[in-house]
Design brief:
The structure is a single chain. The protein contains three helices and three strands, in the order E-H-H-H-E-E. It is mostly helical. Strand 2 (119-121) and strand 3 (128-130) form a beta hairpin. The longest helix has 29 residues, at 18-46.
């Protein structure tokens, strides 16, 4: 009997995961900054005072700074196959097999996928990548 071919595609290894790890780490810091800013805003609205205002403004400044850093890091992470930026939407049409969570775009979905499973699918070429998989040819 012939082996049944699985519909799941095998994930590829990335030559280097450093840029992706840095971009995801910066994105996590940005998400924490957003949560802290919203929390400070809710506290400010519940009990208006000067300290709450300072925390809210500080959180807003931190959120803007971390967004810029995370954006630049996500922009520097390239797909080794198509040379696209899978963690950042560029406005190009996504591949038919690209995945996204409904309210989010493809780039944020890829970041969340890396955070939860250490895998992602490039939105431009549709290739699956596994950050934990060791490349067979590390010299290349």
């Amino acid at each position: 009997m012939p082996e049944q071919i699985s519909k799941d595609r095998r994930a590829r290894a990335l030559p280097t995961t450093r840029r992706f790890n840095i971009a995801v780490f910066c994105s996590i810091i940005h998400y924490f900054a957003l949560v802290s800013t919203v929390t400070a805003l809710v506290i400010l609205l519940a009990r208006p005072n000067e300290l709450g205002l300072m925390f809210t403004l500080g959180g807003l400044g931190l959120s803007i700074f971390t967004w810029v850093v995370a954006y630049l890091q996500r922009k520097s992470a390239y797909c080794p196959l198509c040379k696209g930026t899978p963690l950042l939407n560029s406005g190009a049409h996504p591949h038919l097999s690209a995945k996204r969570l409904f309210p989010l775009n493809h780039g944020v979905t890829a970041v969340l996928s890396i955070i939860t499973t250490q895998k992602f699918r490039c939105m431009y070429c549709g290739a699956d990548f596994d950050l934990l998989k060791i490349p067979h040819h590390p010299g290349r």
